[in-house]
């Protein structure tokens, strides 16, 4: 199957808490109803009921909207079962089941607005290939008619996945929206083991979130002497991953007896031969900045990308 490129309006959002997901889904669907679009919500029962409660509290008559097919709720698991074949989404089943359903809903020619949660169910089950494949089936269909599509994934489901998988999933979308915890004022307590690691999705706020993560770790460790230099370093490496590599990235901070190491791993497959070269074509980082701020730095090539690291002597 040839993978369709993301259409103009296929958004993926990440959420920390269910209440955040419900708020974002509610905003997405209510905006469509206000614009007289046909709205389809392919959600889990938990999220569907919560969203409908919010819509009712906003003054909408959900039952009347459903009767007239302005609002069409669909159980995510039931629809997912209808399009899966031997553990993967079937293009034929998608075209036989989903497409006719969407065409009936939008038979008057109005734009469609679709929230889909089936992909997140596959992802949480560990069926990463199935989730990405289903995203691209939606992309293929979204190129055929006017529609907006939004998917939503819990952020915790990214933590034990390969960076290449997270990057591929994000690449299936035209817009990647970070969770609320990436905001500058959303600080969380970080414990103080000798190694801390976190995965970030490729969205602009990830740079701020990576800085906050480093500051939390350094503060917990009581390491303040070179905190400002370390913040500059992780900002540049995170910027490199998101804007140059268009990649999810993993930031790891390790404290040893003599040094603290900061490592940022991404899926950019550029293969510079020296650390100095890695700072230009790959990331646009000023050649001397990391070398001048840290005690040592370098690049390790990985099977699916690279890891740029630097050390600060304690």
Quick summary of this structure?
The chain is α/β, with parallel strands linked by helices.
What does this structure look like?
With 314 residues, the chain is of the alpha/beta class. It folds into 2 domains: 10-177, 3-Layer(aba) Sandwich (Rossmann fold); 195-313, Heat Shock Protein 90 (2-Layer Sandwich), CATH 3.30.565.10. Helix content is 43%, strand content 24%. The chain has 12 helices and 13 strands. It has a 6-stranded parallel beta sheet, sandwiched between helices. Strands 9-10-11-13-12 form a 5-stranded antiparallel beta sheet. Strands 4-5 form a two-stranded antiparallel ribbon. Helix 1 crosses helix 2 (45-57), helix 6 (118-124) packs antiparallel against helix 7 and helix 9 (205-221) runs antiparallel to helix 10. The radius of gyration is 22 Å and the shape is elongated.
């Amino acid at each position: 199957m040839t993978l369709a490129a993301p259409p103009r309006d296929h958004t993926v959002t990440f959420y920390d808490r269910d209440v955040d997901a419900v708020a974002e889904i509610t905003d997405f669907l209510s905006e469509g109803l206000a614009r007289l679009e046909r709205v389809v919500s392919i959600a889990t029962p938990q999220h569907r009921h919560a969203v409908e409660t919010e819509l009712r509290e906003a003054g909408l008559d959900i039952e009347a909207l459903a009767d007239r097919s302005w609002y069409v709720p669909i159980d995510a698991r039931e629809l997912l079962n209808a399009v899966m074949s031997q553990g993967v989404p079937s293009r034929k089943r998608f075209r036989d089941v989903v497409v006719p359903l969407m065409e009936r809903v939008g038979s008057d020619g109005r734009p469609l607005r679709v929230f889909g949660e089936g992909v997140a169910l596959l992802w949480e089950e560990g069926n990463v290939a199935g989730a990405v494949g289903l995203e691209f089936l939606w992309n293929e269909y979204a190129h055929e008619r006017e529609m907006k599509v939004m998917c939503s994934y819990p952020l915790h489901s990214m933590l034990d996945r390969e960076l290449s998988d997270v990057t591929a999933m994000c690449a299936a979308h035209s817009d990647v929206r970070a969770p609320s915890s990436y905001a500058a004022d959303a600080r969380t307590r970080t414990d103080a083991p000798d190694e801390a690691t976190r995965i970030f999705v490729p969205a602009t706020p990830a740079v701020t979130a990576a800085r906050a993560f480093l500051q939390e770790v350094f503060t917990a460790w009581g390491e303040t002497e070179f905190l400002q230099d370390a913040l500059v370093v992780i900002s540049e490496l995170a910027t490199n991953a998101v804007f140059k590599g268009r990649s999810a990235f993993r930031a790891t901070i390790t404290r040893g007896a003599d040094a603290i190491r900061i490592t940022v791993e991404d899926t950019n497959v550029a293969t510079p031969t020296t650390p100095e070269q890695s700072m230009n074509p790959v990331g646009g980082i000023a050649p001397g900045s990391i070398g001048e701020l840290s005690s040592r730095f370098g690049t390790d090539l990985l099977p699916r990308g690279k890891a740029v690291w630097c050390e600060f002597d304690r």
